[in-house]
Amino acid sequence: MTASEKAKAKTEQASGTAKEAAGRAVGNERLTAEGRAQQMKGDAREAKEKTKDIGKH
User: What's the predicted TM-score (pTM) here?
Assistant: First the structure.
């Protein structure tokens, strides 16, 4: 996994977690859902990169 892709994945996951928490705190279901979606996008990016790494070995 390249460092920049790993950083992007972690950033997306962290941003998603923050959005989800903020949405829950203010009772905004849309913001909560956006946060979950962003987390999943980060998870997918991380999984893609891990798959690439497995293919290299």
Answer: 0.83
